[in-house]
Amino acid sequence: MATRWGICSAGKISHDFTVALRTLAPENHKIVAVAARDLKHAEEFAKKHNIPRVYGSYDELAKDPDIDVVYIGTIHPYHLATGKLFMKSKKNVLIEKPLAMNLREVQELISAAQDNSVFLMEAIWTRFFPVTVELRRLLEQGEVGDVQMVRADLGAPLTHIPRLAERKLGGGALLDLGIYCLQFIFTVFNGERPESIQATGHCIDTGVDGTAVLVLKFSGNRLAICTCSITMMLTCDAVITGTKGTIKIPDHMWCPTSLEVNGKEMQFPLPEASMPLNFTNSTGLRYEAEEVRQCLLKGLKESPGMPWAHSSLIAEVLDEARRQLGVTYEQDNIQ
Ligand SMILES: NC(=O)c1ccc[n+]([C@@H]2O[C@H](COP(=O)([O-])OP(=O)(O)OC[C@H]3O[C@@H](n4cnc5c(N)ncnc54)[C@H](OP(=O)(O)O)[C@@H]3O)[C@@H](O)[C@H]2O)c1
């Protein structure tokens, strides 16, 4: 039976996710409905993507009985409220990254999933790319020996985009881009808690972090460096240094299609998109969608590839880095 998807919000990433869903077998993934705050906006989206049911509010989508899972593509400050709304209506949810604005909100979402006995996953799509599957295999096989150092960089000049620059809209490099570097580090170190976190960087006029550099120290003198920026173009790659060699993920480390292990390159091409996309390599969103289907078929409430513990750990590190940089959101003042 097909997994029946509802799409919450008709913005840029919802467009790309919908296109990516259509690269999967229609007998496995069916898009049933879309909702946006403005009915006209939702209708335009539905027409473009040939989606049968349309709602002008998220509440109506939550009441639709024929939906298995809702993809939440709203901007970060609305992830908590929309996530809770759908979970209370017993809908499984895939929520865009970051799962929420801070650790307190992440914990609230996890509690809502537990209370309502539904599936919840943070949409860290990178985790389900074939490159990441191969990376995990290489690490487990000890292809580069014991990992000593991880470096991950992601940045581009993006301060002209309101949701990235405005504090009220959840702006800042850490929450939008640094999260990809951290999730990579925690993939390699298997969700291990760092012994220490040191953050430095600078803020832009709006008070959110423009550039941040984090140094994480793990047990046994293992280190990780994460650099993220919305003010400058970075190399957007990642390197793992082990006692026996090196793995490199070239540019597009957040949506990778190639990997180099001890100088040998491997390619993992993505399927073509049926219409123009807003973001790089977005047909790769198909892998997280398939992960959700597989988890639902198995009756799981969380994904082994992106478990709640990893979402909590990432949020905890992001909170600590923001504390050191002096970046706060209104959500941080709620107890
Ligand atoms: N996985 C990825 O590669 C990837 C890429 C880009 C973004 N993202 C994540 O996806 C989320 C959305 O990013 P986006 O670029 O798609 O954003 P966007 O197009 O600017 O906005 C997405 C939706 O959020 C709602 N929204 C926007 N501004 C709002 C406001 N001021 N008040 C209330 N709701 C508002 C709207 O929903 P309605 O349509 O209902 O009005 C809008 O369509 C972010 O959390 C981001 O981190 C992920």
3D structure, described in words:
InterPro entries: Gfo/Idh/MocA-like_OxRdtase_N (IPR000683), Gfo/Idh/MocA_domain (IPR050984), GFO_IDH_MocA-like_dom (IPR055170), NAD(P)-bd_dom_sf (IPR036291). Keywords: Oxidoreductase. Belongs to the Gfo/Idh/MocA family. It catalyses: (1R,2R)-1,2-dihydrobenzene-1,2-diol + NADP(+) = catechol + NADPH + H(+); D-xylose + NADP(+) = D-xylono-1,5-lactone + NADPH + H(+). Residues 4-121 form the Gfo/Idh/MocA-like oxidoreductase N-terminal domain. The chain is of the alpha/beta class and 335 residues long. The protein folds into 2 domains: 3-126, Rossmann fold; 130-267 and 307-328, Dihydrodipicolinate Reductase, domain 2. The chain has 10 helices and 14 strands. The protein has helices at residues 12-21, 39-49, 58-63, 79-88, 103-116, 130-140, 162-165, 173-188, 286-298, 308-325, and strands spanning 3-8, 29-35, 53-55, 69-72, 92-96, 120-123, 147-155, 196-203, 209-218, 222-229, 238-242, 245-249, 258-261, 264-267. The strands form 2 sheets. Strands 8-9-10-7-11-12-13-14 form an 8-stranded mixed β-sheet, covered by helices on one side. A hairpin with a 3-residue loop joins strand 9 and strand 10. The longest helix has 18 residues, at 308-325. The chain is globular. The termini are far apart. The model has no long low-confidence stretch (mean pLDDT 98). It binds NADP nicotinamide-adenine-dinucleotide phosphate. NADP nicotinamide-adenine-dinucleotide phosphate binds at residues 9-13, 36-38, 41, 73-76, 78, 96-97, 123, 125, 163, 169, 176, 279.
